[in-house]
Every structure is written in structure tokens, then in C-alpha cells.
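Hi there,

I know you've been waiting on this one. I reran it after we fixed the sequence typo, so this is the corrected version. Both the input and the resulting structure follow.
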Amino acid sequence: PWQGEVTQIKHHWWWKINRVFDQLRVTANFNGFVLFLEEDYYVAPDILYTLRLMVNFAAVNCPSCNSFHLGTFTRSLSYQEHATKVSVGQWNNLGLSFNR
């Protein structure tokens, strides 16, 4: 069944992705990974470095991985305990990154 909230989120992301990949001159010839962040996100200073590590790791260990999420909705997560870990999981839109 049709769910308005889900449809709205899909349209939001569809517009944003098309705008970045197809309409902006600055990204017209860029084929690397783009990190999509909402305006109310806080990020760690090493977020781009971490993304680069994830992309390089996936190229060797998970060739079918085509998007990277640099955040989690899990509020009880101990960041100090899990700082060196990467997980393969379900899609979410928190710190989403992918390429063309």
C-alpha cells in the first residue's frame, strides 16, 4: 500500500541525487563518492578519511557494496567500543554516500 511519508522521503532523495549528479556544473564530471548530509547532522572531523577507508576496504572485501552509511540510528551504541568496526547492514539515509 502507498505510504505518504515513505514516498515523500523517496522523492526528497531522488531530487537531491539528481540535482547533484545531473544538474550541478561542479559535479558534472566527478565520478567519485558523494557524501549526502542533512543540515542538522553533526559529523566527526575524520568523516571523509573514514569514508575513504570504507571505499578502499569494500573494493577488496565487498565488491557488491555500492553505498556507504556513516551513521547509525542506534542510540545505545558505545562509540569507543565500536570505533574500529565497520558493519554491512540495511539501507538507511544517515550519512549516505555513493557514486554514479
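Quick highlight: The longest strand covers residues 34-36.

Best,
R. S.
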